[in-house]
Amino acid sequence: MDTFYISHGSPTLSIDESLPARHFLKSWKEKVMGQRPTSILVISAHWETHEPTVNVVPQNDTIYDFYGFPKSMYKLKYPAPGAPELAKRVKELLMASNFKSVKEDKKRGLDHGAWVPLMLMYPEADIPVCQLSVQTNRDGSYHYNMGRALAPLREEGVLIIGSGSATHNLRALNPNSESVVPWAYEFDTWLKEALLDGRYEDINHYEEKAPHAREAHPWPEHFYPLHVAMGAAGENAKAKLIHHSWSLGTLSYASYQFTTTAT
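The structure assignment produced for this chain is given below.
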């Protein structure tokens, strides 16, 4: 299995037919990945905990962790089965790789960083899904190493998806903008070039290496899922840009595929 980083952007991705990223995700099985995974592990920007945590549930609820959006969005459901065996496996792999404390959440379902893209990618909601949290008190290298610990899952038919946004500054969104602001464009371009060149260590230390890092990510939670997906593919993985679009002047929907290559 390849690993992926999906920019899920705004929650309106769930209903807005004008967003190119929506059509990209709806074509997922046809154009990106025909192979059906045995289960799916999502590292979502919208689950932050102090220590790594997996949701261990038989059935996933749909969490509406957004406010002030159209009422129709609160009626959407993504009733994917849980993946308790995968959750236990994730915990086992992390604890074997020096992540000494890994928690289990036996109530949490899927937040919109997981169910919004998945309802477009796999609308049947028949593949078991587990979520893994991010730790905003840690750094990019920590999350990259988390991904490296999870690499064996690829050989077990598990689809690993990091779900965030290539740029994410909610204070800088502009509904009336018809062009991309320079700082967002420059950060997004740096990210693409670094990924395609395999400069993963630069991305692990993006705060020092990337232009406008603080503007692009005032908080790191939407970027760390990239580090996990990147790490799970391995240091020799090849990155491929599989979708690119913009909305609201600063919000990049850039999404990447990581293919492991032989050493």
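Interim note for the steering committee: The two ends are 17 Å apart (CA to CA). The chain has one domain: 3-259.
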